[in-house]
Structure formats: C-alpha cells, structure tokens
Amino acid sequence: MDNSTKQHLSLEPDGSRQFVLRHTADLDPLMDRIGDAHHVLLGEATHGTHEFYTWRTAISKRLITEKGFRFLAVEGDWPDCYRINRYIKGYADSDKQPADVLAGFDRWPTWMWANWEIAALVTWLKAHNTSLPANKRVGFYGLDVYSLWESLDSLMSYLSEHTDHDVLAYVKDAISCFQPYDANEHRYARAQHYQLDHSCQEAVIELLTAIRKRAPRYDHDPEASLNAEQNAVIAVNAERYYRHMLGFDVNTWNLRDRHMMDTLNRLLHFHGPDAKVIVWEHNTHIGDARYTDMVRTGDINVGQLVREEKGEADTVLVGFGTYQGRVIAGDNWGAPMAEKDIPQAKEGSIEALMHRQSAEDRLLILGHPDHEHPFSGYLPHRAIGVVYEPVYEKRGNYVPTVLNRRYDCFVFIDETRALHPLHRQPDGAKIPETYPFTY
C-alpha cells in the first residue's frame, strides 16, 4: 500500500477524497488529478501565510520536474518579477544573492514577494535552470497592473541603453504627462475623478502603438520584445485603472483581472502552444467567481476566465484555507507590516467544518460538482487581504462559496504561521526554515 493510500481519510458521495498532508509524497493524488492539464492555478487565503507559500512551492517543484511546466505567473508587478526571471535564467545579477534581488520589491505590501520563502524558491529555480538550455529554462513573471511608473521607468532605461530614440520620445511624453502627480497613483486618480486635469490616456496608447511597430528591433534578446510590449501594455491598462479607481462607472476589479488574463495569454503565446503554466494568486483571483457572491456584482476573475477560455479539462484550480494561526498584514493601506493573530474560523464556515472533521492538514480532491457533498452549498470561506483587523474578522473576511465548484482541489492547513518578510531581520543570523517537511 503506498503512502497516499495509507493516509486516505474519507470518500464523499460525489467522489471527493481527503488525504492527510504532511510530506511532498502526500501530493501524489494532486499530481494524478492534474494529469496532463496545462493550467494549474494555486491560491492562498491570505497574503502573509508561511504554509501557503511553502506548499505552493512544493507543488510547483513537482509540476516543473515531473510534468514539464515552463513558467510561474504570480500576483506581482511585472518589472519586479521580470528581474527575478532574468536572475533565475542567468541573464542578469548572477553575482547577487536571491535576497538582494528580492529587495527590489519596494512597493507596499513588500512582504508578499520579498520574503524568505520566495528566496528559497528563487534559489531552487536558479539551480534547476543551470543545466537547461536557454529556451527551456523555467520563467517567473508578474501578472498585475499596478506598476505604471515602474514600467515607464523600465522602458526609459531599456530604450536609452539601446538608443531607440524614436520610441524613447513616446516614453518621455508619457512620463512628462504623469510627472505632475509625483509617481502617486492616488493623486492621478483624484485629478481624473474630479476632472481637474486631462488624462494621459492618449500618451500611453501612442507609446504602446510605437512599441508594437518596433518590436522586431528588439530580437537580439529573446524576451526583449515581450518585456517592452508588456511594460507598454501596463502603462495603458494602469492609466485606465487609476483613471477610474475612484468612480463607479467602470468595474476596476474586472479591469485588473482581465489585464492579468491578457498577460497570461501573452506569456502562453510567447512560450509556445504546448506551454504549461503555474499561477500563484489569492483565492479571490484563482477560485471561479461564478461560485461565489462575486457574481451578484458582475465581478469576474482569472480562475473563471481560464476555465472559460482554456476549458475545464485543461485547468485545475487549487484553493487554500486555514482554521487559525498567524499572518503578516497591515492595519490599513500603506501601514507598517505586523504579525497578527488569525482567530478560529467562525461557526458554519468551510474552515470550521473542516477543523471539526479533523485537525490534520489535508488535501481534498473534489468530486463531481453535480453530486451531493458537505460543501456543495454556499458556505462562508475565509479570505484575508493585505489589510486585516482580526477584531472585525467575523463580520467580514468571508466569501460565500460553493467549494466543490469554485475549486477542483483544496489544501487545508489547520493552524498556520506567519510569513518571514525579508525586510525584517531573521532571529540571530539564521535564515528562517522555509521547508518544514521532507523533500
């Protein structure tokens, strides 16, 4: 009898199975469920939980080594993640340590990617890529839309270095348009909302058009055209996002998730028709929005779009949850990071029901969604963001969810620990242990 069979806990009427989760070998049922799928989306119930990062790392390593997945796409800014991509592929900063590269994540919340758990992943990815040819190395990319100024600065630096004066003029025009706002997206948003200034929409659209016309000029580097175009696309979409951020006429949540889906499609096209991708994002982005209360307000998300565009048979959505523990978060937007308690999940929630079943960490392989299941109705499902106040947790921070429709699989960690941010010094001289289980 193999290890996973020994730890098999239950079989539900819909065919769902639960397995104790202690070692990477316990992920075998998940690897079987993923099969030949090309799109695996790994969630998290918070943006500051140690175990969510380490278990996603364990799953990603197996997908890369056993199933040939080609790149990770994460809920991070493109310019910062692209520096990681260049580093792990040996194209830049080879003399640096992973922590030095990750220190470039200086936009709040810094801890999401500048943490020791990601440093361990980056170390492994760089070592894994060392023996591979350039066109087979695993990549790391950011999907998010927020990096307006950083993307413009990246284009300015790159085009100045390569003396592309024609396109450089468009970058300078765009930067000049945004300059009065002092790299503060909220100032730009307020100016647009109260119609105090003309928008910079035309400037960034002209920039994107110019970049796309000149793309063949950047073919000395296999990823140069991709990087230049993506930074220009971010300028267009970020300007639109911030222009509408304070209004009610445009759904900025949908703008953001459609941007992330478009970026994912651009990356899949770049890597070829057989490319396989691992996505790391919060549950609110990777869990199918159609099976939450998001559908009432017309919100969509990446998980829904991937299922619709790529097909459910080629997509596996893996949600994550916790009953209690500790987390890194801020009291409000831009506040200093702090380690906070996660109280016991409220009664009747998915997490409370799972804890009542067993305090073991577990993997759920969810069954046929049309059949009876303990989680087949709408139940509260914990969701903690970068801003978190535990005292108000039971009045909010829960998303009504049909678990066995929102996800294909679910990882439950009964009690979690906080992430280890790079911008905090480790205790003593020792780097925090980031792999609490055997490889």
TrEMBL record:
Origin superkingdom: Bacteria
SUPFAM superfamilies: EreA/ChaN-like (SSF159501)
InterPro entries recorded: Emycin_Estase (IPR007815), Hydrolase/PRTase-associated (IPR052036), UCP036794_erythomycin (IPR014622)
Pfam families: Erythro_esteras
Transmembrane segments annotated in the record for this chain: none
Biological process according to GO: response to antibiotic
Protein name: Erythromycin esterase homolog
Organism: Parapedobacter indicus
